Recover the amino acids of this structure.
């Protein structure tokens, strides 16, 4: 397994429309894991959640979060970022549309964005990053 990688070392992984898993913290310290759509841009991850979503409530109280994006098929690349999120309400509409188009295609993504109300942008820039790639391990089993 290749370790000590940066996001750029993972090729197109963060550009693929894979569901990410966002971890937020409940008031009792336990973790809530939520599948989310994401966008990697300018060195960090953007997720949009509804204003009153439980994830937004958790992050307002405790801004620590972890986000994982990983492939379920070879070469099993993945990245985990953890840090403190920044919540923003400006640019939500544009972010929803960009992310929805990425996952649903142009027509369906725009329709989804149009039908979706407001929200809040969750921005996570790596405080700590862990990335992996099993490409070399998979090559040992090829042909």
């Amino acid at each position: 397994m290749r370790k000590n990688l940066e996001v750029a070392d993972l090729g197109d992984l963060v550009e693929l429309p894979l569901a990410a898993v966002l971890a937020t913290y409940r008031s009792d310290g336990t973790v809530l894991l939520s599948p989310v759509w994401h966008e990697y841009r300018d060195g960090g991850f953007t997720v949009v959640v509804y204003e009153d979503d439980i994830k937004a409530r958790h992050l307002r109280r405790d801004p620590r979060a972890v986000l994982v994006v990983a492939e379920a098929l070879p070469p099993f690349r993945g990245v985990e970022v953890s840090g403190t999120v920044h919540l923003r309400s400006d640019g939500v509409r544009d972010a929803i549309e960009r992310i929805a188009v990425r996952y649903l295609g142009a027509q369906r993504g725009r329709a989804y964005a149009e039908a979706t109300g407001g929200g809040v942008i969750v921005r996570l820039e790596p405080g700590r990053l862990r990335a992996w790639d099993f490409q070399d391990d998979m090559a040992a089993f090829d042909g």
